């Protein structure tokens, strides 16, 4: 059974701080997706990383795919209250199935 | 903009009832999916469909069935609801295979079975 472990499960920090969320697996993925889900809504795709070592930036969010394509990280610089939400990672396996992490619940306090 | 709508935001049903969850997408997507989302477990795939009248079991199909009579509509059926099916149910659609095409999610239906 493929697993995608996200850490931390919960993070509550003050506005302006930096944070990193991790997504780790023993399996290799062809690509990895990051989603954000706000209360009462479905997940929305933020980014897809495909190449080992790839780094993508989305304003204050930086996404990195590990060299071996088994892990990924999401770094947020100077977090804002609008960043509050549930962050989910999902890896695409060799059968084109999505393997989901359990999510990181992020709260940014003003 | 792609829009995926789900028939109900909140639903309360009794044990043993037959439950229908409806999902409609307006972008002519080939693929549609049903997930359930539980705290600490992430999203788990129940069923998916890659064409009209076609369906494939996901990771947790037991206790559920689906119907896709029209391309835009994908229904999830709980034949006899049980308390362990209390959950958030999310529908999604995509133009093509996951990994190559973005999945668009509906707002979810929070189902409580008492």
- Which structural class do the helices and strands of chain B define? mainly beta
Shape of chain B: globular
Class derived from helix and strand content of chain A? mainly beta
What is the CA-atom radius of gyration of chain A, in angstroms?
A: 13 Å
Mean pLDDT of chain B: 94
- Which chains have the largest interface? A-B, 21 and 20 residues
User: Quaternary arrangement of the chains shown?
Assistant: heterodimer
Write the H/E string of chain B, N to C: EEEEEEEEEEE
Bin the helical content of chain B: under 10%
Largest sheet of chain B: 7 strands, mixed
Q: What are the low-pLDDT stretches of chain B, counting only 5+ consecutive residues below 50? A: none
Along the chain, the helix and strand elements of chain A come as EEEEEEEEEEE
| Beta-strand segment tally of chain B | 11
Number of strands of chain A: 11
Distance between the termini of chain B: 37 Å
**Count of helical stretches of chain A:** 0
**Model regions low in confidence, pLDDT < 50 over at least 5 residues of chain A:** none
Question: How helical, in percent, are the residues of chain A?
Answer: under 10%
| Biggest sheet details of chain A | 6 strands, mixed
Name the descriptors.
heterodimer, A: 110 residues, mainly beta, six-stranded mixed sheet, five-stranded antiparallel sheet, 0% helix, 54% strand, B: 114 residues, seven-stranded mixed sheet, four-stranded antiparallel sheet, globular
Tell me what the structure shows:
The complex is a heterodimer of chains A (110) and B (114). Chain A has 110 residues and is mostly beta strands. Chain A has strands at residues 5-7, 10-14, 19-24, 31-37, 44-49, 55-58, 61-65, 71-76, 85-92, 98-100, 104-109. In chain A, strands 2, 4, 5, 9, 10 and 11 form a six-stranded mixed sheet that branches. Chain A has a five-stranded antiparallel sheet with strand order 1-3-8-7-6, with no helix packed on it. Chain A is globular. The model of chain A has no long low-confidence stretch (mean pLDDT 94). Chain B is an all-beta fold. Chain B has strands at residues 4-6, 10-13, 19-25, 31-38, 42-49, 56-57, 64-70, 73-78, 87-94, 104-105, 109-113. In chain B, the strands form two sheets. In chain B, strands 2, 4, 5, 6, 9, 10 and 11 form a seven-stranded mixed sheet that branches. In chain B, a hairpin with a 6-residue loop joins strand 5 (42-49) and strand 6. Chain B is globular, with a radius of gyration of 13 Å. The chains are: A mainly beta (110), B mainly beta (114). At the A-B interface, strand 5 and strand 9 of A face strand 5 of B.
């Amino acid at each position: 059974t493929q697993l995608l472990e996200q850490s931390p499960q919960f993070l509550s920090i003050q506005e302006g701080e930096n944070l990193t969320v991790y997504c780790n697996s023993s399996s290799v993925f062809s690509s990895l997706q990051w989603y954000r889900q706000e209360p009462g809504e479905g997940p929305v795709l933020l980014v897809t990383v495909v190449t080992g070592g790839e780094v993508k930036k989305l304003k204050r969010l930086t996404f990195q795919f590990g060299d071996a394509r088994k892990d990924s990280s999401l770094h947020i610089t100077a977090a804002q209250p609008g960043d509050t939400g549930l962050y989910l990672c999902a890896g695409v396996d060799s059968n084109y199935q999505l393997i989901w992490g359990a999510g990181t619940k992020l709260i940014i306090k003003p | 903009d792609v829009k995926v709508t789900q028939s109900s935001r909140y639903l309360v049903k009794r044990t043993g009832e037959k439950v229908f969850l409806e999902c409609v997408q307006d972008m002519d997507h080939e693929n549609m999916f049903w997930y359930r989302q539980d705290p600490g477990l992430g999203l788990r795939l129940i069923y998916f469909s890659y064409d009209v009248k076609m369906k494939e079991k996901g990771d947790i199909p037991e206790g559920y069935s689906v119907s896709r009579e029209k391309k835009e509509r994908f229904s999830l059926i709980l034949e006899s609801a049980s308390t362990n099916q209390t959950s958030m149910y999310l529908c999604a659609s995509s133009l093509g295979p996951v990994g190559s095409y973005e999945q668009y999610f509906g707002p979810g239906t929070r189902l409580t079975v008492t």
